[in-house]
Amino acid sequence: MSYLELESISHYYFSEKNVTHALDEMTLKIEQGRFNSLLGPSGCGKSTLLSIIAQLIQPTEGTIKFNGTPINDQKISIGYMLQQDYLFPWKTILANVLIGPTIQGTLKKTDQQRAENLLEKIGLANISDNYPDQLSGGMRQRVALARTLMTEPALLLLDEPFSALDYQTKLILEDFVLDLLKEYRKTSLLVTHDIGEAIAMSDTIFLMDRKPGRIYQRIDVPDQVRQLSPFKARKHPEYQKLFDFIWKEMTRLEAENEPSTL
């Protein structure tokens, strides 16, 4: 039994004049404790799928099961990390990390200790009383991750969380995030259009086609690459082989989706 299972997910967006077929018959299985990526071109429905998994929108068709039971029949915590950190500028770093239990009305003394421990894990314990505008972009994303982990999510969704960062900071944060998620044994699903990022961070990559969005291919990253940090993985020969293969597949999919000039 899969930890998370999507069965024939299709989704349509309706307006007064148009119907957009965003996703078509999406079926995939995710195992517990693994890091997975949805890789595909812009407009293939990656973010729509994350929103459906997070139960922010209901799919037009299909079901999602968590541990074999429809996800709508359960109360589970799902963490959602976005491109922007969305920290509250008027709250301290510690208060931002505590925002989950604060909003839920469940804040306890032990939560503050957990938050302080998380800040220590991410290397920001000494600035817990600072405010977001005093932090760099990479530091803010670390705080956003700590805030997400504070809710003890059963599943972590990441929607291009490194895309707004400079390349060096992005590489550093990839290593840091993956180490932390492995330590906490989190099951994760990353949305990205960056082939290198998907290979370097993932156990499994789901390559998507578009118009409408669908799973085109499942790719398991070789053990030789998976066992390395994202930075070191990029230097392995198997990384380059897989990069070239995925590049060719994505180029072909793009060509097939180009409108005919005839």
TrEMBL record:
<feature type="domain" description="ABC transporter">
    <location>
        <begin position="4"/>
        <end position="235"/>
    </location>
</feature>
<dbReference type="InterPro" id="IPR003593">
    <property type="entry name" value="AAA+_ATPase"/>
</dbReference>
<dbReference type="InterPro" id="IPR017871">
    <property type="entry name" value="ABC_transporter-like_CS"/>
</dbReference>
<keyword id="KW-0067">ATP-binding</keyword>
<dbReference type="GO" id="GO:0005524">
    <property type="term" value="F:ATP binding"/>
</dbReference>
<dbReference type="InterPro" id="IPR027417">
    <property type="entry name" value="P-loop_NTPase"/>
</dbReference>
<keyword id="KW-0547">Nucleotide-binding</keyword>
<dbReference type="InterPro" id="IPR050166">
    <property type="entry name" value="ABC_transporter_ATP-bind"/>
</dbReference>
<keyword id="KW-0813">Transport</keyword>
<protein>
    <submittedName>
        <fullName>ABC transporter ATP-binding protein</fullName>
    </submittedName>
</protein>
<dbReference type="InterPro" id="IPR003439">
    <property type="entry name" value="ABC_transporter-like_ATP-bd"/>
</dbReference>
<dbReference type="Pfam" id="PF00005">
    <property type="entry name" value="ABC_tran"/>
</dbReference>
